[in-house]
Amino acid sequence: MPRFALKVEYHGGPFSGWQRQRDQPSVQGAIEAALARLEPGAHTIAAAGRTDAGVHALGQVAHCDLSRDWAPFRLMEALNYHLKPQPVAIVDCAAVAPNWHARFSAQERRYSFRLLMRRAPATHDAGLVWQVPHMLDLAAMQEGATHLVGHHDFTTFRSSICQSASPVKTLDMLEIRDVAGQGGPELGFELRARSFLHNQVRSIVGTLERVGRGAWAPQDVRRALEARNRAACGPVCPPQGLYLAEAVYPEDPFTRGALADQAAPARKS
Fold it and tell me: How confident is the model at residue 261 (pLDDT cuts 50, 70, 90)?
């Protein structure tokens, strides 16, 4: 049974999250329904990360098993046809080994976060950024962020319903930079780790926003981390600025994927 990797982009606003739910729209459910239009029957796909309601993706990766040996480009096109008009797109597709797994084969996840700083309501970026009505102190936030990089017990920044076996994780990168957004000044966050706890990124961004507006000192982030207590965390920020940007694998499955095949020159007979 051929296995295919799918690179997925979606707007999380209309969905209850990635994971299939009985009575709520989900990204997983939308893709599985599209697969059933191509090959009748039940389909179950797995993903690199289970994003929450309202969270977006630029580079989510999933895999599916099909009975037909599809050309990756044709599979991508067929799925996109059946996904319309939902805000979900398969942006690449590749045939992979039968034991390749979107979740367990991944060695790193990368998330990004957009924070818009302006008083007027967002229009074009509504639902795509977290908006605050004041400017933030980037240098203070960067100083606070340094306390979180590395191998730590992240209990403080972990949801009370997190199902991870351990709160101990290694945060490989946390960078914050100024971004000249079309709607006004933004801060862009980039985070990298092998895996993340439930609500970890949103808890971190919400806490650092508190530093940026002067309610916390940068060293208060270290004290919150060392408390290993959820009550010590700053507010969890809204989901709409969060994006699953990329899942990284030892070998990129899309090197010879649908887009590469489409761009390859035609063979001469």
Answer: confident
Annotated binding site for substrate: 111
* Structure token pair of residue 110: 């990368």
Strand pairing partners for 117? 132
Q: Omega of the bond prior to 98 within 30 degrees of 0, cis?
A: no
Eight-class DSSP state of 267: P
CB atoms within 10 A of CB 13: 15
| Domains of the chain with bracketed CATH | 3-105+249-263 (3.30.70.580), 111-244 (3.30.70.660)
pLDDT at 269 over 50: no
- Torsion sign, CA atoms 106, 108, 111, 112: negative
* Parallel/antiparallel/unpaired status of strands 108-117 and 184-193: antiparallel
Q: For residues 258 and 46, give the distance between their C-alpha atoms in angstroms, rounded to a whole number.
A: 20
Number of CB atoms found within 10 A of residue 190's CB:
14
Q: How does 134-172 read in b/e, with b if 16+ C-beta sit within 10 Å?
A: eebeeebbbbbbebbbeebebbbbbbeebeeeebebebe
- Closest to 77 (Cα-Cα) out of 216, 259, 264: 259
What's the CA gap between 234 and 73, in Å, rounded?
45
CA angle in degrees (0–180, nearest 5) for 221-109-202 = 35
Q: Respond yes or no: is residue 261 known to be catalytic.
A: no
Which one of 23, 52, 92, 153 is the catalytic residue? 52
Cα radius of gyration (the chain): 20
pTM, two decimals, is: 0.94
pLDDT for res 24 = 96
Q: The tokens of 205 are what?
A: 């961004």
Q: Which amino acid is present at 259?
A: L
Alpha-carbon distance of 10 to 156, in angstroms, equals 29
